[in-house]
Design goal:
Strands 1, 2, 3, 4, 5, 6, 7, 8, 9, 10 and 11 form an 11-stranded antiparallel beta sheet that branches. The model has no long low-confidence stretch (mean pLDDT 94). The protein is built from 5 helices and 11 strands. It has helices spanning 23-40, 45-48, 126-130, 172-182, 186-190, and strands at residues 4-9, 53-64, 73-83, 88-96, 101-113, 118-120, 153-158, 194-200, 209-217, 220-226, 232-240. Strand 3 and strand 4 form a beta hairpin. The protein is 18% helix and 38% strand. The longest helix is centred in the N-terminal third of the chain and has 18 residues, at 23-40. By secondary structure, it is of the alpha+beta class.
C-alpha cells in the first residue's frame, strides 16, 4: 500500500498578520487530509456513522522547520503505520514545491460510541486497517505525554457555538488558537521552527466553562485546559526551536 498524496496552497484565509500560515490553519489542513483519506478508503466519519461511531483525536504532534508563506504550495503525504485495540496511528510529511521536507506530524486516533461517548475497540476496524497499512515508520518522535501545569489560570473560556464541530465537542483548532491568544504577540510574530504536542483526555462540550493554565520552561510553553470540575481536558506543549 502506498502513501496518500494531497496538494495544498496556503490561501489568504490561512495566514495571520505575518503573511504566513497560522499554526491552527496548518493543523487544520493536516487533519483535513486525514479525514479525506479515511473517507476515500472506506472508514471515514460517514462509514462509522452507520454504527453511531466517530473518530476523535487523542494525541497529535507537529514539527515545522518554518511556516509557509501566503500562496505557497506544498505536498502532504499521509499513511497509517499501525493500530492497537485503543488507537490508530496516522503519519504525515509536508514537502515544499521543490520536494524538500519541511514538516512532520503524527496523530493518534480512537473511535467513540456517540451514544455513550466511550471508546470503541479498534479491532472492530481490523479489516479496514489491515488493507490500508503502510510499512513505513513515523517521521518524527510520536506525541509526548504532557504532565500537569502548576500555574494559576490565565484564561477562562465558555464553549460557544463557533467552538464546536460535528463531534459536538470543541474543535482542535480552537484549542490551538486560544493558547496563541494567551501568548505575547511576539511569539507568533517571531515563530520559526517549532514542535507542538497535544494530549486530549476529555471532551469540552457546548457551554462548558474552561480554564487554561500556562507556564514556560526554557524554550517550551506548557498549557493545560480543565473544566469547572477540575477535570483535565487537554494539555499542549509548544517547543520553540
Amino acid at each position: 500500500m502506498e502513501k496518500s498524496i494531497f496538494k495544498y496552497r496556503i490561501e489568504p484565509r490561512h495566514v495571520d498578520f505575518t503573511n504566513r500560515v497560522s499554526v491552527s490553519s496548518i493543523c487544520d489542513l493536516v487533519l483535513h487530509a486525514a479525514g479525506e483519506d479515511a473517507h476515500k478508503r472506506g472508514f471515514g466519519i460517514d462509514a462509522l456513522a452507520d454504527n453511531n461511531y466517530g473518530w476523535v483525536l487523542s494525541r497529535m504532534c507537529i514539527e515545522l522547520d518554518y511556516l509557509p508563506e501566503e500562496y505557497s504550495e506544498f505536498t502532504l503525504y499521509t499513511w497509517i503505520s499501525d493500530y492497537n485495540r485503543l488507537s490508530s496511528t496516522r503519519n504525515f510529511t509536508l514537502c515544499d514545491s521543490a520536494g524538500h521536507e519541511f514538516g512532520r506530524s503524527v496523530s493518534q486516533w480512537c473511535m467513540i460510541d456517540y451514544s455513550t461517548r466511550m471508546p470503541v475497540d479498534m479491532n472492530t476496524m481490523a479489516k479496514a486497517h489491515e488493507g490500508n497499512m503502510v510499512d513505513a515508520p513515523s517521521p518524527c518522535e510520536r506525541p509526548r505525554r504532557i504532565g500537569t501545569v502548576s500555574s494559576e489560570s490565565v484564561v477562562e473560556h465558555r464553549v460557544v457555538y463557533s467552538d464546536i464541530d460535528f463531534n459536538r465537542h470543541m474543535n482542535t483548532m480552537r484549542y490551538i488558537d486560544i493558547i496563541f491568544d494567551s501568548l505575547p504577540i511576539e511569539v507568533p510574530e517571531n515563530l520559526k521552527a517549532f514542535r507542538l504536542d497535544m494530549n486530549f483526555m476529555k471532551e469540552a462540550r457546548y457551554n462548558d466553562k474552561l480554564s487554561l493554565k500556562a507556564e514556560q520552561k526554557e524554550q517550551t510553553h506548557l498549557f493545560a485546559y480543565a473544566n469547572e470540575a477540575g477535570e483535565a481536558l487537554c494539555r499542549m506543549a509548544l517547543e520553540i526551536r
